Amino acid sequence: MTEPKKIDPARIKSFIRRQGRATAGQKQALENHWDKYCLPPEQGFDINQAFGRQAPLIVEIGFGNGDSLAAMAAANPDINYLGIEVHRPGVGHLIMLLEQRGIGNVRIFHHDAIEILEQKIPDHSIAGLHLFFPDPWHKRRHHKRRIVRPSFLELLNKKLAVGGYFHAATDWRDYAKDMLNTLSADNGLKNTSPTGDYCPRPAYRPLTKFENRGLNLGHGVWDLIFAKL
């Protein structure tokens, strides 16, 4: 009798490719400016060549519609920003924003973030990695799909430069506690919170409309910022 195939927890997908139609503007951005901003995941990746310069690299996993990423890049033109997103309409929206605002320090991978980190990003090259409002997988049986788990931290430690940081934000208290416990157990990372738990939202992370609406309704948001030792 054949034994069932074992599933490697490190390879469990932490996302679902959402269905959704792109707007006319997003479609136009995808068709006309894809090659300007998007990097082919099947080819080699050279950071300096991709951006045309050498600068600190900030990576954002799952940037959604790209509003926050575009705002951060516009406010920090001396930093290179690499966004990774599997939702194609979101990629189109970010490209549209970059074109409208003349933002040139952003590049995009439309692909699985874990594979990009593993295969494309050099070790010890990331100054900061952002994970804002990831899918909380709130049902207990789905917790194994949460991206912040030991295998992710092992990869994170390889890719962050010394002194680099990991910044996660969530509006799910349970996931915030889970991430805090997981991150705190890693000896290669140090919590930058003065109280040993969560940090106030730093000025560089824009307050989104969705987040602001939730805060006005009394919902909580938790920021975790850990630095590599």
TrEMBL record:
One of its GO terms (cellular component) is tRNA methyltransferase complex. InterPro entries: SAM-dependent_MTases_sf (IPR029063), tRNA_(Gua-N-7)_MeTrfase_Trmb (IPR003358), tRNA_methyltr_TrmB_bact (IPR055361). CDD domains: AdoMet_MTases. Substrate binds at K139, D171, T208, K209, F210, E211. It comes from the Bacteria. S-adenosyl-L-methionine binds at E60, E85, D112, D135. Pathway: tRNA modification; N(7)-methylguanine-tRNA biosynthesis. PANTHER family: 3-DEOXY-D-MANNO-OCTULOSONIC-ACID TRANSFERASE/TRNA GUANINE-N 7 - -METHYLTRANSFERASE, PENTACOTRIPEPTIDE-REPEAT REGION OF PRORP DOMAIN-CONTAINING PROTEIN. Catalyzes the formation of N(7)-methylguanine at position 46 (m7G46) in tRNA. NCBIfam families: tRNA (guanosine(46)-N7)-methyltransferase TrmB. This is tRNA (guanine-N(7)-)-methyltransferase.
